[in-house]
Amino acid sequence: MMRCSRVWLSNASALLATFGPFDIVQSAAHSGVVEVQMNSRNNKLNLLDDSFVRNLPLAMAFLNEDLNSTARVAILVGGDDRPFSAGLDIKSAMKTFFKDVSSVDKAKVAVSTALGVSTKIRDGGEGMPAMRNQEMHRVIREFQDSISSVARCRVPVIAAINSHCLGGAISLATACDFRFCTSDSKFCVKEVKIGINPDIGTLQRLYPLVGQGRARELTFSARNFSAADAKSYGLVEEVFADKESMLTAARASAVEIASNSPLAVQGAKHVMNVPSERAVQESLDYVRLWNSAFIKSNDLVSFGTAFATKSEPQFTDFVVDSTSPPIAPTKRQV
Ligand SMILES: *[C@@H]1O[C@H](CO)[C@@H](O)[C@H](O)[C@H]1NC(C)=O
Ligand SMILES: *[C@@H]1O[C@H](CO)[C@@H](O)[C@H](O)[C@H]1NC(C)=O
Question: Which range is the signal sequence, renumbered to this chain (predicted)?
Answer without folding.
Answer: 1-27
